[in-house]
Amino acid sequence: MAKGRKNGLYNGVSEELSALMRTGWADTERHGLEPDEQAPYAARRRAALSARFPGERLVIPSGNLKTRSNDDTYPFRAYSGYVHMTGDQARDGALVLEPRADGGHDAYCYQLPRDGRDTDEFWIGYTAELWMGRRRTLAESEVVLGLACRDVRTIAEDLAAGSAVPTRIVRGIDPALEAAVTTDEERDAELDGTLSDLRLVKDEWEIGEMRKAVDSTVRGFTDCVGELSRAVASSERWIEGTFFRRARLEGNHVGYGSICAAGEHATIMHWTDNDGPVRPGELLLLDAGVETHSLYTADVTRTLPISGTFSPVQRQVYDAVYEAQEAGMAAVKPGAPYRAFHEASQRHLAARLVEWGFIEGPVDRAYELGLQRRFTMAGTGHMLGLDVHDCAQARTEEYVDGVLEPGMVLTVEPGLYFQPDDLTVPEEWRGIGVRIEDDLLVTGDGHENLSAGLPRSSADVEAWMARFAG
Ligand code: GLY
Ligand code: MN
Ligand code: MN
């Protein structure tokens, strides 16, 4: 009798039960599947990757479940480099590009196939389909992904067989797979960096997904405004739950932990506890993004007067941030240095802070010394895509020291944050935090604001709230 898990209520499996479980199942092979519409795009992305590493074997794992406690796990999210190169989201898999003599590569997607019904694996254990849900067969995956698929249970053997081939693996995703290959840490980091570089410019299919993510997010923000009075009666949790419902209904999830920050919580950049009160007269800073089924995420922020209208000080701060965002967005166009939007926004905010007497001028000096950062805190934006902070490992000369190109998607998100205990500003400014964040697509002659469906100016925000606030 096979032994069960520690403190499980069953001691094991009798041979009779095992035999019973193996019989009486219908053939559920899926026929007539169509290739995923992303498949040809993923093939082009692999060709671009292949061209960067002739003669080398590349291993790009999808990742594994991470333990929360005992046999409980965190929700799985595949490594973005794997998703981008395959269009697949399965766990325990890997893409392997095997070098060919002509300098190109053959691609193999290693997957955990369906469990046969001739062993106990399909109903007992970590990967059992009866507990975890049906997977695709390798044949099904080949059709859907348009990619040769192999059984991941033989990957270590396959990699050992060609161990003389110079190999790179993306580290930090699948420790067992990492242990199966001998590679150099620096060269591996270059592979990760190249996978980030190749995501800087989105293809047409990805741009379509970004539009879906942002459009859902716009609906999620409208939902939250419609629920404001319930949030006032409850807490920030109501806002978080309201946005999450939209994310789950229309997408896969939220692309990052929603920031539902009312009152002085708006001054905390990574406020995700979302357990505070929502009080009329204060501001609600909502920073949230829907992640599509294909795992592309939006990242949008609006700062809303909970009572429907801004107080004079709130409006003064809000309008300064709005103008800074306008200045930043005007700098988003092809050929512009990436940093230009950040510099334009920060300079504007530095000028306002000098004018208000919160930092010492002249403005050029204040900006060069970065004095505005006491109140602006963060950089003014970042690339956006499969990850909220997308392309994070890209080469600096391609990203922050590079120039904007059509197809890039980035956020422009200036903010001002006056901490509740900041004695350098008048009392009525303390505890005010404002950020306005939009998602911009660089086009052939400028940019398109993908999140333009939400109001931005203080007057438009008030008009929108008067229409939708519940
Ligand atoms: N929500 C994270 C960010 O705005 O960068
Ligand atoms: Mn954000
Ligand atoms: Mn952002």
How would you explain this protein's 3D organization?
This protein has 470 residues and is of the alpha+beta class. It is built from 16 helices and 19 strands. It has helices at residues 15-21, 39-52, 80-86, 129-132, 138-145, 155-161, 175-179, 185-197, 204-226, 228-233, 236-250, 312-330, 340-355, 363-369, 373-376, 458-468, and strands at 2-3, 12-13, 57-61, 67-69, 72-73, 94-99, 105-111, 148-151, 167-169, 253-254, 259-262, 283-288, 290-291, 300-305, 409-412, 415-417, 433-435, 438-442, 447-449. The strands form seven sheets. Strands 8-7-6-3-9 form a five-stranded mixed β-sheet. Strands 11-12-14 form a three-stranded antiparallel β-sheet. A three-stranded antiparallel β-sheet has the order 15-18-19. Strand 1 and strand 2 form a beta hairpin. The radius of gyration is 26 Å and the shape is globular. Glycine binds next to loops. Belongs to the peptidase M24B family. This is Xaa-Pro aminopeptidase. Keywords: Aminopeptidase, Hydrolase, Manganese, Metal-binding, Protease. Residues 36-178 form the Aminopeptidase P N-terminal domain. Its EC number is 3.4.11.9.
Give the helix/strand layout:
Layout: E1 2-3, E2 12-13, H1 15-21, H2 39-52, E3 57-61, E4 67-69, E5 72-73, H3 80-86, E6 94-99, E7 105-111, H4 129-132, H5 138-145, E8 148-151, H6 155-161, E9 167-169, H7 175-179, H8 185-197, H9 204-226, H10 228-233, H11 236-250, E10 253-254, E11 259-262, E12 283-288, E13 290-291, E14 300-305, H12 312-330, H13 340-355, H14 363-369, H15 373-376, E15 409-412, E16 415-417, E17 433-435, E18 438-442, E19 447-449, H16 458-468
Parallel strand pairs: 3-9, 7-8
Antiparallel strand pairs: 1-2, 3-6, 4-5, 6-7, 10-13, 11-12, 12-14, 15-18, 16-17, 18-19
